[in-house]
Amino acid sequence: xxxxxxxxxxxxxxxxxxxxxxxxxxxxxxxxxxxxxxxxxxxxxxxxxxxxxxxxxxxxxxxxxxxxxxxxxxxxxxxxxxxxxxxxxxxxxxxxxxxxxxxxxxxxxxxxxxxxxxxxxxxxxxxxxxxxxxxxxxxxxxxxxxxxxxxxxxxxxxxxxxxxxxxxxxxxxxxxxxxxxxxxxxxxxxxxxxxxxxxxxxxxxxxxxxxxxxxxxxxxxxxxxxxxxxxxxxxxxxxxxxxxxxxxxxxxxxxxxxxxxxxxxxxxxxxxxxxxxxxxxxxxxxxxxxxxxxxxxxxxxxxxxxxxxxxxxxxxxxxxxxxxxxxxxxxxxxxxxxxxxxxxxxx
Length: 347
Hints:
Layout: H1 4-17, E1 22-31, E2 41-45, E3 50-52, H2 58-70, H3 72-77, E4 82-86, H4 90-95, E5 103-110, H5 117-125, E6 130-135, E7 141-145, E8 153-154, E9 158-163, E10 168-172, H6 176-187, E11 191-195, E12 211-213, H7 217-224, E13 230-234, H8 239-249, E14 256-259, H9 263-277, H10 281-285, E15 287-288, H11 300-315, H12 326-342
Parallel strand pairs: 10-11, 10-13, 11-12, 13-14, 14-15
Antiparallel strand pairs: 1-2, 1-5, 2-3, 4-5, 6-7, 6-9, 8-9
Domain XdhC- CoxI: 15-69
InterPro entries: MoCofactor_Util/Proc, NAD(P)-bd_dom_sf, XdhC_CoxI, XdhC_Rossmann_dom
Protein name: Xanthine dehydrogenase accessory factor
């Protein structure tokens, strides 16, 4: 499953290749609460078809109506982008489903050859980060190699946006837990790669849209070179496989590196990686182990949910307190249970 921005770009390019008029809509700025963050994309086709979103639906309906009434062909013939603001007044905020006081500013641009969406899509597919500068007077676009993430900037002359590769997760081990983890990861827009060199694990393991690798984990990590939009999760319980992945992943730019295991095994793993493989304290400090948030997980599906919750939090830059991780959260929960039992409560 593709992330939403890539899907918007791919669909808009396909409509353009078919000779259909297309308008690309970008959330440029927001004030107060808003349904979609700055940088969100939506494409509107000639028949009112849409892909992507800029709100919960009301603004999309109004945009389609405006484009139909104005004639999408005439809009595309004008070449120049336009800026549209929603939610300035309380009445408009209520009408368009925005929280009270919420305001968003959108840039609508006709998709034409000089829009360079095909080049932008190719850059995302090649996991390159791009800064896109749109001239509001002419509609011409400049593309530069840029940072992976950034807040769009809109002024009277131009709109600058940043697009990066799809978020990716590399899962070491093809087991039941991996299957659930991959399904959740795909559902929230991650590209998913599963690595397991054990041939017997592949016979009954397949999942649509998930790439399977039979390489040794260290070979895969070295080949893919995890970037700042990549997470690595080791799930085999086999140090010969998990450690191989972790050694290189912990020295990469991956935004999340985690491994499943008990608290005791996690401590032994940290000691092993430091003593035998020379990993520094700073590298080991970035290891999430045991991986996941403590939610009392019992089944593979629940464990997968707890791990992906921690991955998504890291992706979104949320600093979580140690107490809700498995390592600290489980003993706190056990201590709480003992206190309740001492008080004669049923636990």
